[in-house]
Write a structure and sequence with these properties.
By secondary structure, the protein is of the alpha/beta class. Helix content is 45%, strand content 15%. The chain has a single domain, classed as Aldolase class I (TIM Barrel). An 8-stranded parallel beta barrel has the order 1-2-3-4-5-6-7-8, surrounded by 6 helices. Strand 3, helix 3 and strand 4 form a beta-alpha-beta unit. Helix 1 packs parallel to helix 12, helix 7 crosses helix 9 and helix 11 packs parallel to helix 12. The structure holds 1,3-dihydroxyacetonephosphate (13P).
Length: 262
């Protein structure tokens, strides 16, 4: 029996305004109100977080995450948002090291490491994103890249930190391209990550840690991906902007969880 609960997370990226949150949630919640057994996480932009927080306050079904936060506690960091500010709005999950932040905003392995430490200190559940480019995959270096990203990000992590972390395998070539990894490709990489966690932390932590997949997940391919016992969920970008499509993926996660458990 697989003890790991599936996670289905929506990363809205820089889409949907605060006034679009309510209509989205009304449609989405109606679709999923009978669903149980998966962890659903909504990760809107900063400006939409207060509205989402207000609307979800009494709804234990959907948790709130943030796409980014500062590696610093507080102070003269114009334009930054701190972990404490997010906790105040009932944010419990944070993305760390998303490839778009690494690519477009100069987030180095060192910054990713600092943010992961800050996430743990602030009692967030970080979703650490790792993944290789098309060139790296073609050159046969995908696993080497993941190993480096995991080792640098998780350096000095305690067993509790490991256990508290969710890892998202997001191959860069699959993000926003419509070119999703096959269930076999994703499972192979998840298996590799789990083996790495075994050596970096322990067998027990490796058995418990949740490894989710991101990269062009849609209602059409979600079932196939989520059926794999190695894939503990999905981090959904584009398809999560449509509440019905995202609800379909949540339902796929739910049926896959039942199948994997039985
Ligand atoms: P897409 O689902 O749009 O490919 O985005 C994936 C992603 O980056 C989620 O964090």
């Amino acid at each position: 029996m697989n003890p790991r609960k599936k996670i289905i997370a929506a990363n809205w990226k820089m889409n949907l305004t605060s006034s679009e949150v309510q209509p989205y949630l009304e449609t989405f919640l109606l679709e999923v109100n009978h669903i149980d057994g998966v962890d659903v996480i909504l990760i809107p932009s900063f400006t939409s977080i207060p509205k989402a927080s207000e609307l979800l306050e009494k709804n234990p079904k959907v948790r709130l995450g943030a796409q980014n936060f500062s590696a610093h506690d507080k102070g003269a960091f114009t334009g930054e948002v701190s972990a404490r500010m997010l906790r105040d709005l009932f944010v419990r999950y944070v993305l760390v090291g998303h490839s778009e932040r690494r690519q477009h905003f100069g987030e180095t392995d060192q910054i990713v490491h600092q943010k992961l430490r800050m996430a743990h200190r602030s009692e967030f559940r970080p979703i650490l994103c790792v993944g290789e480019t098309q060139e790296e995959r073609k050159a046969g270096k995908a696993k080497q890249v993941l190993e480096h990203q995991l080792k640098t990000a998780l350096a000095d992590s305690s067993p509790e930190d490991f256990a508290n972390t969710i890892i998202a395998y997001e191959p860069i070539w699959a993000i926003g391209t419509g070119c999703t990894a096959t269930a076999e490709q994703a499972s192979e990489m998840h298996h590799f990550i789990r083996e790495m966690i075994k050596s970096l932390a322990s067998k027990e932590v490796a058995a418990k840690i949740r490894l989710i997949y991101g990269g062009s997940v849609t209602p059409a391919n979600a079932c196939e991906l989520l059926k794999s016992p190695d894939i503990d969920g999905a981090l959904v970008g584009g398809a999560s902007l449509d509440p019905r499509a995202f609800a379909e993926i949540v339902k796929a996660g739910c049926s896959a969880a039942v199948e994997v458990r039985s």
